[in-house]
Design a protein that fits this description.
The chain is an alpha/beta fold. It folds into two domains: about 55-415, Alpha-Beta Barrel (TIM Barrel), CATH 3.20.20; about 420-575, Glycoside hydrolase family 3 C-terminal domain (Rossmann fold, 3-Layer(aba) Sandwich), CATH 3.40.50.1700. Helix content is about 40%, strand content about 10%. It contains 24 helices and 14 strands. The protein has helices at about 1-5, 10-30, 35-50, 55-60, 65-70, 75-80, 95-110, 120-135, 160-165, 170-185, 215-230, 265-270, 270-280, 310-320, 335, 345-350, 360-375, 380-395, 410-415, 415-430, 465-470, 485-495, 520-530, 565-575, and strands spanning about 85-90, 110-115, 140, 190, 235-245, 285-290, 325, 355, 430-435, 450-455, 475-480, 500-505, 535-540, 555-560. The strands form two sheets. It has an eight-stranded parallel β-sheet with strand order 7-6-5-4-3-2-1-8. β2 (about 110-115), α8 (about 120-135) and β3 form a beta-alpha-beta unit. α5 (about 65-70) crosses α18 (about 380-395). The longest helix has 22 residues, at about 10-30.
Length: about 600
């Protein structure tokens, strides 16, 4: 038998017998030659559908998908244009307003929504209604730099970026980004227009200011990356703004067109640096600002959003950005001052933007864009390509398998213990001690020492004053920011009987302010208290507001808390009484006395 197995003819016959079943199967599959290519195609489509999407959002935008193709093929030209439009929506404006939004969804098949003020349950219900009415699932976004609590009641608000800029531990920013992503997903949202990657080195900037991480390009970049990764690692698209940099201007593009006069060398070394690094590390979106930058495009009064050399030449080609390019709101004066609705949107697409945000008129924009196609300013093929890009974004975000938002336990899910813990950790690490004469901090109340607390800008005792009572016996006073001389004089008389005065300075809003709006009399009392050497002052607002109180550097101690939210006020009391050490660093230069990076650390 062994000899037989070694015989060449036997081996040939054995191979032929083994091959017959395979040949038979091939023959059976090929009997209907007319269906062979269709069968192969079906297998290919099945493989494509089941194949894992690219890991990164940016890579997914150029990934072929039959879902994208099938949806795209159902769309008219008007609808393909409309897919590049995001309209605004509020959940606190009543039925008539909601019907107007619904009409735009049903009549034009717009690509998405950016939500603003309202409430979480109301927004969730509206999202479900709008999604149910949409021919193509909607991309839902929000401008929520400080989390959804920045827009919605009954939800968590995290710190603005100036407070985050005071942190040394960027892992806390990543943690916050992850929490924001969790809350976005729970509310059926997909894109956050954050982080602000502008470098705010102009104390007179009326719009960026406390929204930026600070004035140092490296720090702004590192912290922007941490926030971006926290969101994108957890499935929410981050959108860096405001390209190519809105930090060094004293004009608000909501109200006028800022002019950025700097040359390319300056822009490369400062303004563009964070955006370049964010692109390298995979940021999903970039929002282009409405600014005139003559050194990049000398066309008179042309906003950067409408500039092809800036959007296509610089952002897409030179910096090699392949994610979604969003315009800033097209209702802002920075664009509408010189370009009427319709023309502005057409020019924005010609310039290279992928998505138009917040329009004055959807039908006017669609008609103007079709006219631009007819004129040859932009090709239909280019509109089609960007439409598919938008659809690919929706696929990556799971909108091919859209599920309505579950309203059960929504409030509880949007207010998790982890968010409270993150907010507390950030506040305790960010508060910045700038003055500490004769080691006034940490405080220890001496026997018979009389301590008063005064909150400027309050109508009742504040959280800070209540927290202080955990560590000392105090008498509490409150006074209006607008207090007149007679009120100030009465308070001044009362404070003379106290050995130590803990002063809290508050602005007009829960948001930090560029101008606290104090009366001359109130400002004068703050100055007097600082010069008395018996006042310890805490500013619960924008660090730049220190400039509104001449002589505040003479305080016995001076603490910057950046914001008036609960955890900042709680942390301020803990720091003053030595329960936790101050660890923050000033993220901006306020004046000649208080420079970037300053902050007294106590062990």
């Amino acid at each position: 038998m062994l000899t037989l197995l070694r015989h060449p003819n036997y081996i040939k016959k054995l191979k032929l017998l083994l091959a017959l079943p395979l040949l038979f199967l091939i023959a059976c599959e090929s009997t209907d030659t007319s269906n062979s290519s269709l069968a192969a195609t079906e297998r290919e489509f099945t493989f494509t559908e089941k194949a894992k999407l690219p890991d990164t959002f940016v890579d997914a935008l150029s990934h072929r998908s039959d879902w994208v193709d099938s949806v795209f093929n159902t769309l008219t030209l008007d609808e393909r244009i409309a897919q590049l439009i995001i309209i605004e929506a509020f959940s606190n404006r009543g039925a008539a307003y909601e019907a107007d939004v619904m009409r735009l969804i049903e009549d034009y098949n717009v690509g998405g929504i950016i939500f603003f003020q309202g409430g979480p349950v109301r927004q969730a219900k509206l999202t479900n209604q709008y999604q149910a009415a949409a021919k193509v699932p909607l991309l839902i976004s929000m401008d929520a730099e400080a989390g959804i609590g920045m827009r919605l009641d009954s939800t968590v608000q995290y710190p603005f970026q100036m407070m985050l800029g005071a942190l040394e531990d960027n892992a806390l920013i990543y943690r916050m980004g992850a929490e924001v992503a969790h809350e976005f997903k729970r509310l059926g949202m997909h894109v956050n227009f954050a982080p602000v990657a502008d470098i705010n080195n102009n104390p007179h900037n009326p719009i960026i200011s406390y929204r930026a991480f600070g004035e140092n390009a490296i720090e702004v970049t590192d912290k922007s990356l941490a926030y971006m990764r926290g969101m994108q690692d957890h499935g929410i698209v981050a959108t860096a703004k405001h390209f190519p940099g809105h930090g060094d201007t004293d004009v608000d593009s909501h109200h006028d067109l800022p002019i950025i006069p700097f040359n390319r060398e300056r822009l490369d070394s400062l303004e563009l640096y964070p955006f370049r690094e964010l692109i390298k590390h995979g940021v999903g979106g970039i929002m282009v600002a409405h600014m005139h930058i003559p050194r990049l495009d000398s066309t008179n009064n042309l906003p950067s959003t409408l500039s092809k050399p800036i959007v296509t030449g610089l952002l897409k080609e030179e910096l090699n950005f392949n994610g979604l390019v969003f315009t800033d709101a097209m209702v802002m004066k920075g664009v509408t001052k010189y370009f009427p609705p319709g023309e502005a949107e057409a020019r924005a697409l010609v310039a290279g933007n992928d998505v138009l945000e917040r329009l004055n008129s959807v039908p006017r924009a669609i008609n103007a864009i079709k006219a631009a196609i007819k004129k040859g300013d932009i090709s239909r093929a280019e509109i089609d390509r960007r439409c598919k890009k938008m659809l690919a974004a929706k696929l990556w975000l799971g909108l091919d398998k859209y599920q309505p938002i579950d309203l059960h336990n929504l409030y509880e899910d949007l207010n998790p213990p982890a968010a409270d813990s993150t907010n507390r950790a950030i506040a305790e690490a960010a508060l910045t001690l700038l003055v500490n004469q004769k080691r006034a901090v940490p405080l220890r109340q001496r026997r018979k020492q009389k301590i008063a607390t005064v909150s400027f800008g309050a109508v009742r005792p504040t959280i800070f004053q209540r927290q202080v009572k955990q560590y000392a016996t105090t008498t509490d006073f409150v006074i209006s920011r607008k207090a007149k001389a007679t009120e100030i004089q009465k308070l001044k008389e009362k404070l003379r009987h106290y050995d130590l005065v803990l002063v809290g300075l508050y602005g007009p809003s829960i948001r930090p302010s560029n101008n606290l709006g104090y009366s001359d009399a109130a400002t004068g009392l703050v100055r007097e208290l600082a010069n008395s050497r018996k006042a310890i002052v805490t500013l619960f607002d924008n660090a730049y507001a220190l400039n509104q109180f001449p002589g505040i550097q003479h305080s016995r101690a001076l603490l910057v808390a950046y914001q008036p939210h609960f955890h900042a006020q709680e942390a301020a009391a803990k720091i003053l009484f030595g329960r936790i050490p101050p660890r923050g660093k000033l993220p901006v230069t306020v004046n000649n006395t208080f420079a970037y990076g300053e902050g007294i650390r106590l062990d």
